[in-house]
């Protein structure tokens, strides 16, 4: 992988390339450039499929960002480092993260935000540093996804978008902390700061929603209501702390009314984990007057505008957004990894399928058809 003068050179490897919106991914031999200044090249060991990967893959509003390599929940091993990188060495085990932490900008030094101004969410399919790609196939550039692109045996990420972890941490499980599980736990613990004895309602019991549920349970919430159209989520939800379950398709009254009856006027905390702005409105209507807090975590596929009657806010309710659970990747994620290693929360049972990388299209179908929690692909 290196030249005679010990500088990293181009790597050829397999990657799952999306050539168009919703088209089956094609395993191609791609070229991965060496890491540039402040970047690292990573041998991906495991990557899990997040709902946002599927949504963006199917999104026809950005057809100019194809061909593209998706994937952002990943664990791996540093293969080479670029100029100026002192935090990582070859052989280090890492998690990739879709938002970085430069530790120098206004937001990073504030201690109040994880919205890094230098390494924030990348939407244009390129690297943060030079607005170019590090992938190509047959001479054609391939766009990145969230500046991670883990559906490849090797990838290049900015060193600020990676977190070092211990070599004893199981890479096939901890990859879930790159996005979904961290997002749910952080929404419960850091963004909402759920209090003991409180009532909680969670819309959507996928990996993120179930992580909110266990976060609420660990904080001592007395009532945790799960809302999902999949009746199968009742059983798995109970394992993560759900005490009551509502299927909107089987409910004889508006969901928000049913929740108010279960909570004596509305939940203390409400979480939208679906990615539907209509559900955000329902979630806001489901929390109580005076102090009810609604946290939205989902990314909508369409209709990004949220509709709310001003009276919902005038009466004391709060609507708050949450990205990556409010965690700052480098400052906070190592502590979360430590909690996992100390068995302080459940992670392993959120992996519903372990599959080889070659089965990536099957894994995407499982997510599209709501037949999985997390599929972990082994590279």
Automatic annotation (TrEMBL):
Protein name: Alcohol dehydrogenase
InterPro entries in the record: ADH-like_C, ADH-like_N, ADH_Zn_CS, GroES-like_sf, NAD(P)-bd_dom_sf
Compartment annotation: Cytoplasm
Domain Alcohol dehydrogenase-like N-terminal: 38-165
UniProt key word Cell inner membrane: no
Sequence similarity: Belongs to the zinc-containing alcohol dehydrogenase family. Class-III subfamily.
Pfam families, per database record: ADH_N (PF08240), ADH_zinc_N (PF00107)
Alphabetized PROSITE patterns for the sequence: ADH_ZINC (PS00059)
Keywords: Metal-binding, NAD, Oxidoreductase, Zinc
GO biological process: formaldehyde catabolic process
Required cofactor names: Zn(2+)
Summary of subunit composition and partner proteins: Homodimer.
Gene3D superfamilies xref list: Medium-chain alcohol dehydrogenases, catalytic domain, NAD(P)-binding Rossmann-like Domain
Organism classification: Eukaryota, Viridiplantae, Streptophyta, Embryophyta, Tracheophyta
């Amino acid at each position: 992988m290196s030249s005679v003068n010990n500088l990293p050179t181009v790597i050829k490897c397999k990657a799952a390339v999306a050539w168009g919106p919703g088209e089956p991914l094609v395993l191609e031999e791609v070229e991965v450039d060496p890491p540039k200044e402040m970047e690292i090249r990573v041998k991906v060991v495991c990557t899990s499929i997040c709902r946002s990967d599927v949504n963006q893959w199917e999104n026809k509003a950005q057809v100019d960002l194809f061909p593209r390599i998706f994937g952002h929940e990943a664990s791996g091993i540093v293969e080479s480092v670029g100029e100026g990188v002192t935090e990582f060495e070859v052989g280090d085990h890492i998690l990739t993260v879709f938002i970085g932490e430069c530790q120098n900008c206004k937001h990073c030094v504030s201690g109040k935000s994880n919205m890094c101004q230098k390494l924030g969410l990348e939407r244009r399919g390129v690297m943060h540093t030079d607005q170019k790609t590090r992938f190509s196939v047959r001479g054609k550039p391939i766009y990145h996804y969230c500046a991670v692109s883990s559906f490849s045996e090797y990838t290049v990420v900015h060193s600020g978008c990676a977190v070092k972890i211990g070599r004893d941490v199981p890479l096939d499980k901890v990859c879930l902390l790159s996005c979904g599980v961290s997002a749910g736990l952080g929404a419960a613990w850091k963004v909402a700061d759920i209090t003991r004895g409180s009532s909680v309602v969670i819309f959507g019991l996928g990996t993120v929603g179930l992580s909110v549920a266990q976060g609420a349970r660990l904080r001592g919430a007395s009532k945790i209501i799960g809302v999902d159209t999949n009746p199968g989520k009742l059983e798995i939800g109970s394992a993560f702390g759900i005490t009551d379950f509502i299927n909107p398709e089987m409910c004889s009254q508006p969901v928000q009314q049913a929740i108010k009856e279960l909570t004596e006027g509305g939940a203390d905390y409400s979480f939208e984990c679906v990615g539907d702005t209509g559900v955000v409105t329902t979630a806001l209507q489901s929390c109580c007057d005076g102090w009810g807090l609604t946290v939205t975590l989902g990314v909508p596929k369409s209709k990004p505008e949220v509709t709310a009657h001003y009276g919902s806010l005038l009466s004391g309710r709060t609507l708050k957004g949450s990205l990556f659970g409010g965690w700052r990747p480098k400052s906070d994620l190592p502590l979360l990894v430590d909690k996992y290693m100390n068995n302080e929360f459940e992670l392993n049972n959120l992996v519903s399928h372990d599959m080889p990388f070659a089965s990536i299209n099957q894994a995407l179908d499982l997510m599209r058809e709501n037949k999985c929690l997390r599929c972990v692909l082994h590279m």
